[in-house]
Write a structure and sequence with these properties.
- The chain is α+β, with helices and mostly antiparallel strands and about 170 residues long.
- The protein has a single domain, classed as Glutaredoxin (3-Layer(aba) Sandwich), CATH 3.40.30.10.
- It contains five helices and nine strands, in the order αβββαβαβαββββα.
- The strands form two sheets. A seven-stranded mixed sheet has the order 2-1-5-4-3-8-9, with helices on both faces. A two-stranded antiparallel ribbon has the order 6-7.
- The two termini are about 20 Å apart.
Length: about 170
Amino acid sequence: MDSLMWGREPLVTSFELTDHDGKRRRDDHFRGTLLLIYFGYMFCPDICPTDLQVIAQAIDELGSAGDAVQPLFVTLDPERDTPEKLASYVSLFHPRLIGLTGNPEEIRSVARGYKVYYARTSETDMSTYLLDHSAFIYLVDGSGRYVGFLPPGTSSNRLVDVIRRHLLGISK
């Protein structure tokens, strides 16, 4: 976590995963847009749906400027979060939200690249386990460069402010 918080190690922002329509997507497919990347899982009882709603609200609040922003939801639970299930889930939040999944090793690799923590907890059976996970909103600019993150619980107003600054090329 210190690596992310203090920039001690670079993030690896490249990936190739399967979207909620079953198409393979690489990070370079999104060049030219500001990416908002969120790692979580569909069965998350609290923070994931709250933060995804904030992301959706912020994009709507941006109006036409929101067209330059692409929100991505990367599942940390590929065993349960299939492309078909992700399609239904992401549509609950925003029509432009793309759900991404892959095999467990692909997800582990992308999560490592972004310094995402996640671990299974309360494993009573395969259908009811929960995941502990970090819950940051990562920002990646149009050239694929990591530019920062926002913590869980960030308000939509703060997210809009940060997005606008990055769209205008203003730091901080």
